[in-house]
Design goal:
about 325 residues, alpha+beta, about 20% strand
Length: about 325
Amino acid sequence: MTLWDGELSFYPQYRHSAGFSVPLLIVILVFLTLAVSFLLILPGIRGHSRWFWLVRVLLSLFIGAEIVAVHFSADWSVGRVSTNTSYKAFSAARIRAHVGLHVGLEGINITLTGTPVQQLNETINYNEQFSWRLGKNYAEEYAEALEKGLPDPVLYLAEKFTVSSPCGLYSQYRLAGHYASAMLWVAFSLWLLSNVLLSMRVPLYGGLALLATGTFALFSVLVFVSISSVPLCPLRLGSSALTTHYGAAFWVTLATGVLCLLLGGVVVSLHYALPSALLTFLDPSVKDCGNQAREGSPLNFNNPLHKQFGASDLTICTNL
């Protein structure tokens, strides 16, 4: 017997933000710190090189941050519906609420917000996370949710993603999430490699690494898209049906993959068409040194002794 008119008791628990997590916050802070640190030293770069390094570094940081951040985002597939539905088990009480479903690479996040929030003498504002990443057990988390007596809409959606559910959503999204995550980590490694190669003035290999980065980012998107070819189990909440669509993390990853392919293609094309111009673009100090030599800048030495032996002039250009 329960103490609340035959309704299951509610046990408070920690809430998780939809589409946001502590690892995601850490990733954003790390890359923002790197970006701010670079902006602080940017005034020390002289000439037109300042704008070149600004675009190059910030664009590279954006690509790296996006590849890592989308691992922890729950906005790969999202759905939201406003419905009139039952609230708790063994109760005829109904509520009007917004129900949201956020699917990521590592699990799902379910939100339930009453309209208005205060109904049935309770505050209806739930945010529950269920994870299937390595080291987590989705079935155990769902069992804990049953013991806590969470509202019916939350339990209904969570049950659809269990292993025993005939919908098969758990296998589809879990496998797609694992493979997409693995490909994104490969893309991140290739992004690091491309930065090293471009800094070493080997643009061809740096461009190829960028092409590989974009390819694996697009592969992760294609893996996640593959689940859409399987008919989705209908999700009905009261009088309404919840449908999902691709979220922000999906589209940002797709855009980043295309961006990497374009940048890599431009670098490789310039390597064969205009190699000297590409080297000058990647290392503006080469152009500055040449300009100083032509303009008679300080420390421009010509050795007259070489002319006596028919040797070419030796020009030494040094930047202080």
